[in-house]
Amino acid sequence: SSQSALNFGAGPAKLPREVLTEVQKEIISYQNSGMSLMEMSHRSKEYSQINQSAQNNVRDLLNVPDNYKIMFIQGGGLGAFAAVAMNFMNRTGTADYAVTGTWSAKAAQEAEKYGTVNLVFPKAKKPGKIPDQSTWTLNPEASYFYYCDNETVDGVEFPYIPETHGVPIVADMSSNIMTRKFDVSKFGCIFGGAQKNIGPAGVVVVIVREDLLGNAMKICPTVFNFTQVHKENSVLNTPATFSVYVMEKVLKWIKESGGVENMEKQSQRKSDCLYGAITDSNTFYSCPIDENCRSRINIPFRVGGPQGNEELEELFLEEAEKRFMYQLKGHRSVGGIRASLYNAISYEDVALLVKFMKEFQAQHQ
Ligand code: PMP
């Protein structure tokens, strides 16, 4: 039954069961209004409350200082790549990018349409390392410095916030937002698509330091102009109301589950458990990522030796599905297996995966 599906997908991904049950209860009549939230105006009092509560929850959960504005846009992570450049590139016409995998590479490519992009270290042929900061070539004149805090496809996560000597930092936290505490005041802008840790697809959370607003390029579409979106309190035009509604509930669920502090603790436990199984497998399972930048959230690994045995990997996926474990296939550009351990995945879910991995190894090595 759907009840027992173990969803290790990279996104859209598992949502807390409690949230889905609540949505189900309200789907036809939201708070006894006789209407679904989906059928209500984005200017209704009901949606205004949801919009405000979602923003407040982001602020509380991440301890966002008052001089940072929180807003919601559409267009996904890819839209945000362009929006970032169009909102911030204007200052000097150039920006620094740290490319550590698929998504930061795409962000850099998108930004090139709007200005000069300087890669602070050469793009690696195979991701899996973050070059030491002392080797980076930072441009002190950069409008901003950009990096992806967690590379969803490649499994590379920053173990630190880069030091940029005053240049505003822009971070893509699509796949690890709300999974660990961090100091928002170190950033100029943080964004994240909701569809992994905080809700359904369709909405992107953007947090911007106030003094960086007001500088968008003339060509910037109004819906991507952070200054205008903020001015209209994220109802500049029709937002993805249903996505924001569900996200508001997920954020509340995080609060009630011990906040980001507990998400971080659980995330460490879950990823330690899975990496432990990989390390203990005597190279039957292997993860190609440097130990100091292994993602706690998206864990890519090969089966049947460090190069991977594709036949065995096919079989692994088939056998996993027989145990109701789904969406474990690695990204098409990387191959192998990838387990995504977002907030809604419990330690017990990971323990079941690890138990299966041990049995599979015993049968096939
Ligand atoms: N950044 C990261 C880190 C992602 O994982 C993704 C999507 N997997 C994106 C950006 C792109 O998001 P979208 O598909 O919403 O454009």
From TrEMBL:
<dbReference type="GO" id="GO:0006564">
    <property type="term" value="P:L-serine biosynthetic process"/>
</dbReference>
<comment type="similarity">
    <text>Belongs to the class-V pyridoxal-phosphate-dependent aminotransferase family. SerC subfamily.</text>
</comment>
<dbReference type="InterPro" id="IPR000192">
    <property type="entry name" value="Aminotrans_V_dom"/>
</dbReference>
<dbReference type="InterPro" id="IPR022278">
    <property type="entry name" value="Pser_aminoTfrase"/>
</dbReference>
<keyword id="KW-0808">Transferase</keyword>
<keyword id="KW-0028">Amino-acid biosynthesis</keyword>
<feature type="domain" description="Aminotransferase class V">
    <location>
        <begin position="7"/>
        <end position="353"/>
    </location>
</feature>
<dbReference type="InterPro" id="IPR015421">
    <property type="entry name" value="PyrdxlP-dep_Trfase_major"/>
</dbReference>
<dbReference type="InterPro" id="IPR015424">
    <property type="entry name" value="PyrdxlP-dep_Trfase"/>
</dbReference>
<dbReference type="Pfam" id="PF00266">
    <property type="entry name" value="Aminotran_5"/>
</dbReference>
<keyword id="KW-0663">Pyridoxal phosphate</keyword>
<keyword id="KW-0718">Serine biosynthesis</keyword>
<comment type="pathway">
    <text>Amino-acid biosynthesis; L-serine biosynthesis; L-serine from 3-phospho-D-glycerate: step 2/3.</text>
</comment>
<dbReference type="GO" id="GO:0004648">
    <property type="term" value="F:O-phospho-L-serine:2-oxoglutarate aminotransferase activity"/>
</dbReference>
<protein>
    <recommendedName>
        <fullName>phosphoserine transaminase</fullName>
        <ecNumber>2.6.1.52</ecNumber>
    </recommendedName>
</protein>
<keyword id="KW-0032">Aminotransferase</keyword>
<dbReference type="InterPro" id="IPR015422">
    <property type="entry name" value="PyrdxlP-dep_Trfase_small"/>
</dbReference>
